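Provenance and format

Records in this collection were gathered into a single text stream. Each protein contributes a sequence line and a token line. The two records reproduced below are adjacent in the stream.
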Amino acid sequence: MFRQGQGNGGSLIYKQALRQQQHRNNKKNIEETTMKKSIIALAFIATGLATGVQAKTTALPTLTDGAALELVNQGLQFCRKDGYNVSVAVVDRTGSLKAFGRSELAGPHTVDSAQKKAFTAASMGQPTANLAKLVTDKPFLQGLKDMDSRMLLLGGGMPIKVDGQIVGGIGIGGAPGGHLDQACAEQAIKVALK
């Protein structure tokens, strides 16, 4: 048995054990204090960010349900007038489907092509015919076709703009050529958003 004060090192072992225990306690206290400070700091940051975000939001024009339905109806009418059985899709600025219509005799492939053309026009902010030409003229841009599975680089998709801001896209598929789909889309935008 070791006693304090004897020359056998008992005192040294006791002191080392005491220091180790104090070190563990100090380390635990430091960790707890650091965690508390971190939580408080995060609370202040979150409050500040929330306030900052609210102060910096902007109002963007949006595509209403009524306007989306009118675009679909006009697209169907313009193509039907020329004897084309088509599908017409309208998406919002995020590419989410807002309205859709299909002629009774439109081919089943037109459903997907109209939606993809609308998505492409909204997300890229360009008529899909322009993008198709760009990829043809500049082969190094072929990767655009594979950028997103919802994209289709064929004529017939037009971005929809209000006050110079893109609010969505319209896509038409089923006429015998992308340029004819695009002509119907352009007319639909002109009439529905006048």
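Adjacent record:
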Amino acid sequence: MRQLIFFIYIAFLSLGSFAQTNEESIELANQYYKNKEYDKSNIIYDKLINDKNVAKTIFNNYVNSLYETKDFKEASKIIKKMIQLFPATSVYEVELGNSYILSGNQKSGNQQFDNILKNIKNNKSNITEIANSFIKIKQYEYALRTLRIGERMFPNDNTFNLQIAAVYQEMGKIKEMLNEYIGLIEISNLYINDVQNYLQNALENDDNKIIKNALFDLLIAKIQSNPNEYVFSEMLIWLSIQEREFEPAFNQSKTLDRRLKENGNRLFNLASVCVANKDYATAEKCYHYIIDKGSDNPYYFNAKYELVNIQYLQITTKDKDITKAIELKKNYEDFFHEFGKNASTITLIKDYAHILAFYLDSIDLAINELDATINMGSVNQLKGAECKVELADIYLVAEELWDAVLLYSQVASDFKNDPIGHLAKFKKAKVFFYIGEFRWAQNELNVLKASTSKLISNDAMDLSIIITDNIGEDSSMTEISMYARADFLLFKNKTDLALETFDSIVKLYPWHSIVDETIFKQATIYESKKNYNKADSLYKYVCEMFPSDIYADDALYARALLNETEFNNKTLAMELYQEIITKYPGSLFVVEARKKFRTLRGDIIN
């Protein structure tokens, strides 16, 4: 008995040793293959191919290696061996035909392919496997014939249409591809999401708009011939949104909304997409359409709320415009007259106060609004804290510094572990920075650098580095004090005065370490003024001259956004996003840069 156990143990050891040897051999052969040393890889693969356990693993590399050395006879021999070892796997049958064609024997290759189709099994997975094998070797006509057989064998399975359409796309047959996709949603509108996903990928790579124009013409024709089939209008709206053509999407959405009596739901959702893409004009049209339906409409309040909100967004992301601010003030007051000042409108009250203080210099009125809101009985703690931070900001604009510090301190204490608390603490540190108390600011920032809020942590780190780099023993306080004053002017929305001060720093101290931060700030101001060329040149200067400094990745990301959204330079935008990913892997912008890069490349982003 012990002797038997010993022999079994030795057998297991031998098997383990053999498996390990195989793994090492495969690794070595693959390395030769990768290095294009095909004669060497072929010798090793030839010894391994008879082992059924590894044959599938090495097959593709081995056959391709034989093709590279023009040994088509040996390749055919190996493929036939695989057919014997794995008779249920159709991939090898297709590869055999491919080996004949590559050797120059087109007739034998076609005969092999025809035999495969004659003997095709009544099995969906087998049909798909064969079709994919044909696609892999670019035998698209045979792939189509395979899928058509599948359609006949499984008449109730419409997913073959998607595969057929994909083959037509590979062949460049746009009309046929679109007919398959649209034909599928004619069968059932339940396939609309699948069709849209496939088409989205096609459209992202449609630089010459060939697919877009053909799809547009096809959908218009379908709408005209089938006016009661709303799925084609749905597709047309979707197409317009994909192409960022929101005005046509708005017009089509209105038509469907009226026909289907949707109460504005479609328009409300479209408005959100428009806002995300900064098409505020079309978003406003969507909201006005809903508002015109009357106060009984379920989206009436939300439409009015969002209408004022996007007007706020437009004003606060551009250079100061007093006329627009006065118009917005009246719109806020009309809104509050209709809906009141209560728990559901607190965010708008906060934003209203911001416009009063930062754009219209109505400091006292803004303070009164926020005081009343904070003391409102129905305010939840978080909303109240947000209002306190806004009130502190306004005290800071009024240069009532210690009132601002007191409020920031309250929020930081009450919300120690929340983003709003971290924000308040950061703003408190900036007060000290603005007034030149750099050591006090640094003490506050040291705590924040470990914040769980990545954005605040990053901002704290940046400001801390600015202070550390510019208040050392070899540096006077003059330059950083000027920078702090300019930054304070920028905070108070005194952009022209801030720009003048930043300009002075660059002119007076061109070699000082604070110059890169100064130029970056100049760029942001020019961007807010819509002087995009000037902004881009300054961002570029920061990237090229200060690649290791704190704002290098910020400047690179800002340039990428400008080239994507303002200059419509897709190629350069992709290069800049890629540079962020590779050059600054720890940057806060990496995740968004990767997403934008993939979108511009044409990937489908879920």
